[in-house]
Amino acid sequence: MLKLAVLVSGGGTNLQAILDAIDSGAITNAKVEVVISNNPGAYALTRAKNHGVKGVCISPRQYRDREAFHEALLGELRASQADLVVLAGFLVAIPPSIVEAYPNRIVNIHPSLIPSFCGVGYYGLKVHEGALQRGVKVTGATVHFVDTGTDTGPIILQKAVEVKEGDTPEILQRRVMEQAEWVILPQAIDLIANDKITVKDGKVWIRA
Ligand code: GAR
């Protein structure tokens, strides 16, 4: 049974998709051990509570500096004995100390087709603002392993989503979530939980 630590910052719809997929059997051999938020007001923590899952807030404000915050985060991850760390809308950069502690054991959902609209400064609605500003006709979402760069790790799954005339960043964000994020994040977790994924030369290979 793969133990998951799910890291969140906001609404937690991706967390909800994971919890629902475990309940429905779309994800097998995995269990959410803990939900960790950097933001005490994150609705994701309420979702965890409603589901009977342990929720913890580790806010940078509680610590004297960034290093102490990172240590506390790593300490909580270790205490949970998580096998896989899932960044489900976690809008905090993961430091090298945590990446090195979990090599190819941290996955992130990003709301674009990487390598478009990703990297430093592209998170949440800003990603969709960028896509609309550029006028792309297709966008989507990507699940990838986390390395020490920003959105640069091996790509596990991607799904394309149409951009429509009249889209606002909010409308596009919702479509990308519904059609792509809530689909491919649970799928990727299921593949990892069932040992279907290998990483070689920075690329992901999926066994049928
Ligand atoms: C999601 O769209 C996720 O892809 C994005 O934040 C949102 C969180 O929503 N993540 C990033 O932009 C990471 N760079 P949620 O809290 O409802 O799951």
TrEMBL record:
Q: Where is the Formyl transferase N-terminal domain?
A: 3-187
The UniProt entry's GO biological process terms, in alphabetical order, are: 'de novo' IMP biosynthetic process
Q: Which domain of life is it from?
A: Bacteria
Q: Which CDD domains match?
A: FMT_core_GART (cd08645)
Pathway(s) per entry? Purine metabolism; IMP biosynthesis via de novo pathway; N(2)-formyl-N(1)-(5-phospho-D-ribosyl)glycinamide from N(1)-(5-phospho-D-ribosyl)glycinamide (10-formyl THF route): step 1/1
Is the keyword Thylakoid in the record?
Answer: no
GO cellular component annotations of the record: cytoplasm
Q: Where does (6R)-10-formyltetrahydrofolate bind?
A: 66, 108
Q: Which residues bind N(1)-(5-phospho-beta-D-ribosyl)glycinamide?
A: 12-14
User: Which residues carry out catalysis?
Assistant: 110 (proton donor)
UniProt-listed Enzyme Commission number(s)? 2.1.2.2
Q: What class of enzyme is it?
A: transferase
Q: Which GO terms describe its molecular function?
A: phosphoribosylglycinamide formyltransferase activity
The protein's UniProt keywords, in alphabetical order, are: Purine biosynthesis, Transferase
Coiled coil feature spans: none
Q: Where does the signal peptide begin and end?
A: none
Which reaction equation describes what this protein catalyses? N(1)-(5-phospho-beta-D-ribosyl)glycinamide + (6R)-10-formyltetrahydrofolate = N(2)-formyl-N(1)-(5-phospho-beta-D-ribosyl)glycinamide + (6S)-5,6,7,8-tetrahydrofolate + H(+)
Q: Which Pfam families match?
A: Formyl_trans_N
Positions marked as site (Raises pKa of active site His)? 151
Q: Which InterPro entries match?
A: Formyl_transf_N (IPR002376), Formyl_transf_N_sf (IPR036477), GART (IPR004607)
Q: Which PANTHER family match?
A: PHOSPHORIBOSYLGLYCINAMIDE FORMYLTRANSFERASE
Protein family per UniProt: Belongs to the GART family.
Describe its function: Catalyzes the transfer of a formyl group from 10-formyltetrahydrofolate to 5-phospho-ribosyl-glycinamide (GAR), producing 5-phospho-ribosyl-N-formylglycinamide (FGAR) and tetrahydrofolate.
Q: What is this protein called?
A: Phosphoribosylglycinamide formyltransferase
Identify the species of origin: Candidatus Blautia faecigallinarum
- Originating gene: purN
